[in-house]
Inverse folding.
């Protein structure tokens, strides 16, 4: 059974930083793209950042220059470094990954709350 476990969320003041982690565990043959999504109350879930297995990244316009996605393939972990946080970044952040076990699966973590407030 594959599990994605996020950590690193919390309460931070505007202008502050947080680093989210998502560790993948279980019987994994391969992990392709890894992504971070977020969902604020009353809003649709939106893609924040993505990284391919080769390290190619892309970002939502709203976070470009402030957030950095990275991954450690040896530890099956993806990170999201969030700097210069704004109140509008407040949301539940979800990790997502395309994982090959006996076939390809679209897997999600349980989410971690990020609150930006003074």
């Amino acid at each position: 059974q594959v599990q994605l476990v996020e950590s690193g969320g919390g309460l931070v003041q505007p202008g502050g930083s947080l680093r989210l982690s998502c560790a993948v565990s279980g019987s994994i043959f391969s992990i392709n793209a890894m992504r971070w999504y977020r969902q604020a109350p009353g809003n649709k879930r939106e893609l924040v950042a993505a990284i391919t297995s080769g390290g190619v990244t892309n970002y939502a316009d709203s976070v470009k220059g402030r957030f950095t996605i990275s991954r450690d393939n040896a530890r099956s972990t993806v990170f999201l470094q969030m700097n210069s946080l704004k109140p509008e970044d407040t949301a539940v952040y979800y990790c997502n990954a395309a994982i090959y076990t006996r076939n390809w699966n679209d897997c999600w973590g349980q989410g971690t709350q990020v609150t930006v407030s003074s």
